[in-house]
Amino acid sequence: MLIFSRYNLVLLAVPKTGSTALEVALGQEADGRFGNPPEMKHLPLYRYNRFVRPLLQLTTGQDPETFALIREPISWLRSWYRYRAHNSMALLPTSTCHISFDQFVREAMSDDPPSFAQVGCQTRFLSPGGSGGPITHLFQYEQMDLACKFLENRLELELDLPWLNQAAIGPAPLDPDLEAQYRQIHAGEFQLWQDASI
């Protein structure tokens, strides 16, 4: 999470949406930065509204606008799967090295997912909770050029994003019936993604 008090803007870092690249590109310009631990870096909107927003309102006298990216949900799952399939994670309980993408998605939809399939959902991350309003500026990850143009205009700078934390490349097919089931269960997430940056 990056805080730009001068520009009354807070960037929330939705996992697997280029947040590390944004942090590297914009971190030096930020007035405040939550980089570690991951629970702070990836602070969801409902926790921001409850804990950080009141502090910023008190100290800056403003109610900061919020910015986030959302990724197409199947692509988002596939990114998690590929990230956890990296050889460096092979011995960890979160590793997906020896399972199919179908199994990963099936477990992610279960009531009690194993650690390798615990990824949450973007809708929950972007839920405002009961302490504040919805996200102010939401852009599709797939339209990064629009998001960067917004940030360049708002923060009065030129943005050059590095490509970081790229997941392993490889096929990760998904059974059409399983995809249809996921789309039905997570219809709200697909709608939120479709509505972003319109």
Output the structural class: alpha/beta
- From the spread of the alpha carbons, the general shape counts as globular
Question: What characterizes the major β-sheet?
Answer: 5 strands, mixed
Element-level helix/strand string: EEHEHHEHHHEHHH
Roughly how much helix do the residues carry, as a percent range?
A: 40-55%
Radius of gyration: 17 Å
Number of strands: 5
Q: Are there runs of 5+ residues with pLDDT below 50, and where?
A: none
Mean pLDDT, to the nearest integer, reads 94
Describe the protein's architecture and organization:
The structure is a single chain. This protein has 198 residues and is of the alpha/beta class. It contains 9 helices and 5 strands. β1 and β2 form a beta hairpin. It is globular and about 50 Å long.
Outline of the structure:
With 198 residues, the protein is of the alpha/beta class. The chain has helices spanning 19-26, 38-41, 45-60, 73-84, 101-108, 122-125, 144-155, 176-185, 187-195; strands at residues 2-4, 9-11, 32-33, 65-70, 137-140. The protein has a five-stranded mixed sheet.
Q: What's the topology here?
A:
Layout: E1 2-4, E2 9-11, H1 19-26, E3 32-33, H2 38-41, H3 45-60, E4 65-70, H4 73-84, H5 101-108, H6 122-125, E5 137-140, H7 144-155, H8 176-185, H9 187-195
Parallel strand pairs: 2-4, 4-5
Antiparallel strand pairs: 1-2, 1-3
